[in-house]
Amino acid sequence: xxxxxxxxxxxxxxxxxxxxxxxxxxxxxxxxxxxxxxxxxxxxxxxxxxxxxxxxxxxxxxxxxxxxxxxxxxxxxxxxxxxxxxxxxxxxxxxxxxxxxxxxxxxxxxxxxxxxxxxxxxxxxxxxxxxxxxxxxxxxxxxxxxxxxxxxxxxxxxxxxxxxxxxxxxxxxxxxxxxxxxxxxxxxxxxxxxxxxxxxxxxxxxxxxxxxxxxxxxxxxxxxxxxxxxxxxxxxxxxxxxxxxxxxxxxxxxxxxxxxxxxxxxxxxxxxxxxxxxxxxxxxxxxxxxxxxxxxxxxxxxxxxxxxxxxxxxxxxxxxxxxxxxxxxxxxxxxxxxxxx
Length: 341
Description:
By secondary structure, the chain is of the alpha+beta class. The chain folds into three domains: 4-83, Orthogonal Bundle (Arc Repressor Mutant, subunit A), CATH 1.10.10; 166-235, SH3 type barrels (Roll), CATH 2.30.30; 244-335, Alpha-Beta Plaits (2-Layer Sandwich). The protein is 45% helix and 24% strand. The chain has helices at 4-26, 32-38, 43-55, 81-87, 90-106, 111-139, 145-151, 155-167, 239-244, 267-271, 299-306, 318-335, and strands at 60-64, 71-75, 169-176, 184-197, 200-207, 212-217, 221-230, 255-262, 280-283, 289-296, 312-316. A five-stranded antiparallel sheet has the order 6-5-4-3-7. Strands 9-10-8-11 form a four-stranded antiparallel sheet. The longest helix is centred in the middle third of the chain and has 29 residues, at 111-139. It is elongated. 17% of the residues are buried. The model is unreliable at 1-7, 78-90 and 104-109 (pLDDT under 50).
């Protein structure tokens, strides 16, 4: 367990850095002594803060004050537009879009949203009206299902989690499973990652009572409270390994090897995509292709295989062959008359 003292120290440093960054931009530049007095610290500490901001890639400028007695610091965003692209990648942009998309209801839910809002104001200032209009035009060219997944997530759940994950804070949640007969259950989790899958947002977490990994649909979280206590991720936890163990979202079952043979008509669609990180492809003489991969056994694989209809034959495992054979029998029985019952 990490001490609350060290965590509080890091939090206060982060808040001071964000505040200093705001002052550098909004006040047109300030000197070390003003900043030290404003935040009740030393000029040496403020200088370290400025160095940290510069190392993060922010274009800081040092120049003489009007009276020539002191040095003033400011952020030269407008003269360093090229560096902005180096500060943002697709995931950062998505975070800003989600924050701004949730607008009003997200305000006041966490300091994380406030920080994103502050960043968005700076970016908008840098871009100007004409460039912002161009950015909207660019944005209109893309359609993101992830955007809708996050926008449908309650902000009182999403943003506290964004703040809790880097601090490794335990959360108490109230959750309702999708089954019609399920009841609300309350338990504690250590949140690890937030991700989108098939139009829904999920939380990868550890259920602390059992020390087991779980994935919770954020729309099914009825209530969430971030606690003061902290937790430690499972030893050797690697989110990429967890992700690679699944074909879609389920990764808890035993790992199974799948081998599927696709017809020449379907093969081009199979070759053009990565269906699983472990996959291997073998081209066949008739123009078809054989796909092999290993992942956790789940209905996601069987439903995906069935979606290719007569364009696929499952070679392994035998269990999936039998499952699809039974499905075929049921479909024949249901549709053999050609009329709805």
